[in-house]
Write a structure and sequence with these properties.
Blueprint lengths: L5 E6 L6 H9 L5 E4 L17 E5 L4 H17 L12 H9 L6 H13 L6 H16 L6 H12 L3 H12 L1 E3 L5 E3 L3 H29 L1
Antiparallel strand pairs: 1-3, 2-3, 4-5
Helix pairs in contact: 2-4, 3-4, 6-7, 6-8, 7-8
Length: 218
């Protein structure tokens, strides 16, 4: 598979991706389901949901797959039982789902729109496009690393702990996948430089203490 693939959706369980994978196969869309449960950056400062599987496709297929996914759940949305929990949500809570659609399933995202429309508060496609662009800009903004991370990183670096390597690597390289297939660094450039310094110091510290223990032993 020569083309570069980007993360389209994350899943906690592999089985959750199978229905969408069937749609991709029927439409001859290249994909990869990656198990990232062992990645270093998932153990420290990762996404809140800490998903384990990433479904990857080509960036140019994102819009097409999103349309296919909407068609996949459209019938379920139209025929959903009225006791489904979203019907108890306030207008503000439903709008929150639409504002942060990447945190919700496609079903809940479309159902939130349907319920708002039934309440006379339909959101037009043009407004949805604006919301998506604004959300993309918001997620692209880089955050500051909590100072405690730096203190812990340098502490473990000088005592020879491997945790310093994990902290440094995470700060330096952790990225967030965006809804358009791009990825963006989570932390600011100056903080990433500090992460690189922590990583280097930690590697040196680990090597130093290994040598010290070896010399003391022999």
């Amino acid at each position: 598979m020569s083309a570069t693939l980007s993360t389209y959706r994350k899943f906690i369980y592999k089985d959750d991706a199978l229905e969408l994978i069937k749609i991709l196969e029927v439409n001859h869309i290249d994909y990869e389901l990656a198990d990232n449960s062992s990645r270093l950056d998932s153990s420290f400062g990762a996404d809140v949901n800490n998903q384990e599987f990433e479904l990857k496709i080509q960036k140019e297929n994102f819009n097409k797959v999103e349309e296919l996914e909407e068609k996949l759940v459209e019938n379920d949305v139209q025929n959903v039982e009225r006791d489904y929990y979203l019907f108890e949500y306030s207008d503000e809570e439903l709008i929150e789902i639409i504002l942060k659609k990447e945190e919700w399933s496609k079903f809940d995202y479309l159902l939130a729109q349907k319920i708002l429309k039934e309440r006379g508060k339909e959101i037009s496609p043009e407004v949805l496009t604006v919301i998506s662009k604004q959300r993309l800009e918001e997620l692209s903004k880089e955050a500051e690393v909590p100072k405690l991370w730096f203190y812990l990183g340098y502490f473990f670096a000088f005592v020879g702990g491997f945790l310093g390597i994990i902290i440094g690597y995470t700060i330096m390289s952790y990225k967030r996948n965006l809804s358009n297939g791009e990825s963006a660094y989570v932390y600011k450039e100056e903080d990433r430089k500090q992460g690189r310094n922590i990583l280097i110091c930690s590697i040196i510290g680990v090597i130093f203490w290994i040598v010290v223990r070896y010399l003391n032993k022999y």
